[in-house]
Amino acid sequence: MNTREFDALILGGGPAGAAAAMLLAQRSHRVALVRPTNTPAGALAESIPPSTRRLFSELGVLNAVDTAGFFRNNGNSVWWANNERRDENFGGDGAGYHVDRTGLERVFITATEAVGCSVLIGVSARKAIKSETGWKITCETEDGGMVEIEAPWVLDATGRHGFLARDVRKPDRSTTTIAINQRFEKPAGWDEATANHTLVESYQDGWACSIPLSPTLRCFTAMVDQHHTELEGREVSGILRDELAKTTHLASMFDHTNTAGGSWVCPASLYHSRKYSRPGALLVGDAGSCLDPLSSYGVKKALASGWLAGIVVHTALIDKPMTDVALDFFDNRERSVYQSYRHRSAEFFEEAASVYGHPYWTTRAEAARATVGAVSGPDDSDWLEDLDGTHISVDLVQSAHERIRSAELLDSRANPELRVIKRPAIRSQRIVMKRHLMSDTHPIGIRYVRGVDLLRLVELAPQFDQVPDIWNGYNEKEAPVSLHDFLVGLSTAFATGLLVHPDQ
């Protein structure tokens, strides 16, 4: 049997696996990525928010994604729990993307190969043996040949399949969800007002969404529960039509439309893992946990998980004493992300349950709240919005920002009860121990936000009474940051109680 040796083996070539492979290969590690086949043509459409652009930039693929021809994502239009349409129009970071998963993965695989990763398509992992020095993974090729790959690190990014993950997963058995999908073409074009929007609508016993892939092509999906939907002996396309007919707004869109390809079903039940890391192995992206599609952050979560997994393995390869710290860092982050999004989805489920009263909604609301209580970690985690991670409520930061804006003079002082502790942090694409600031209102500690060093900021801010002066003073002493990022950092310092106003 042919044996090949690498520093890291990535199983799975979706966004999570590709992100980890790119980061590691960019840092001159020997990396192999294996995936069974190319993504089938019937793959799900995905809505990617504009905030994901920061991750694309970190991975060096932003230009490739921008030039791939994906349809522009300008926001969401939502009809939820019988409420009026709520529009979210993206601004600030610009537009996001509506993508065919096949096309997106093609961009990632090309970028992964370009940085020197060995990409093996048509190869499936069959057997894993762990030793003191690493892993031996036996793989099968499409023609029946066998390949053995040895590596000290294996990253399971095989999604729901979960080659290494299945034994440590905890499924949410109370909500057996499936996604029923089909694409529809409207030659005359869809409604211009929402042509670039993801459309979401709840109904009595489920919810549905529509993602545009071009001015004339949309993918429609109904999220149903196997326990509450009659499926036996029915055509998939008929089930989808019947479910969409229960909606009000999405149902009205089908005049003068044609089906574009067949319908298909995907499992969409939720799960998380008891452990996301162990010596020599990480569960990355959907291999470790699956979020409710209602979050619309599936691709972003996968990319962030892969990015962080690459940083953890890079740290372990170049700084072995930091391995355990890096593994715990990854495990805690993945737990926190899952909990955060379950918390957010619970609010939507509870709102729908209060209107419809159907078991579809009541069981999901109950399960979400129970899971939030069972998984440890911060209640509010917006770390995906900030690569350094803050675990700070956006509302608190915005409130602090408004007070800064309304003040004629920024008279600030360091919190006299401020404490300094050492905690792991991401610096220069590796995990290091850094001094963090801790207050009574933010006891987990914080150091960096949007590239702003809060330790230096707290030292400098009391010396000035105008924000531009603080910003200029900071940029003279530290790596320059934009005014926007500086304001986020300054507002976060007040929101976490690191800086206080005289009247506090």
The total of helices stands at 12
Domains, number: 3
The fraction of residues in strands falls at 25-35%
CATH class of the largest domain: Alpha Beta
Unreliable parts = 374-389
Alpha-beta classification: alpha+beta
Query: Looking at CATH, which topology of the largest domain would you report?
Result: FAD/NAD(P)-binding domain
The mean pLDDT is 89
Basic shape: globular
How much helix, percentage-wise, in residues?
A: 25-40%
Taking all Cα atoms into account, the compactness measure Rg is 24 Å
**The CATH homologous superfamily of the largest domain:** FAD/NAD(P)-binding domain
Q: What is shown here, in short?
A:
It contains twelve helices and 30 strands. With 504 residues, the protein is an alpha+beta fold. Residues 374-389 have low confidence and may be disordered.
Please characterize this protein's 3D structure.
- With 504 residues, the chain is of the alpha+beta class.
- It has three domains: 2-68 and 98-168 and 270-341, FAD/NAD(P)-binding domain (3-Layer(bba) Sandwich); 177-267, D-Amino Acid Oxidase, Chain A, domain 2 (2-Layer Sandwich), CATH 3.30.9; 386-500, no CATH class.
- It contains twelve helices and 30 strands.
- The strands form eight sheets. Strands 6, 7, 15, 16, 17, 18, 19 and 20 form an eight-stranded mixed sheet that branches. The chain has a six-stranded mixed sheet with strand order 9-3-2-13-23-22.
- Residues 374-389 have low confidence and may be disordered.
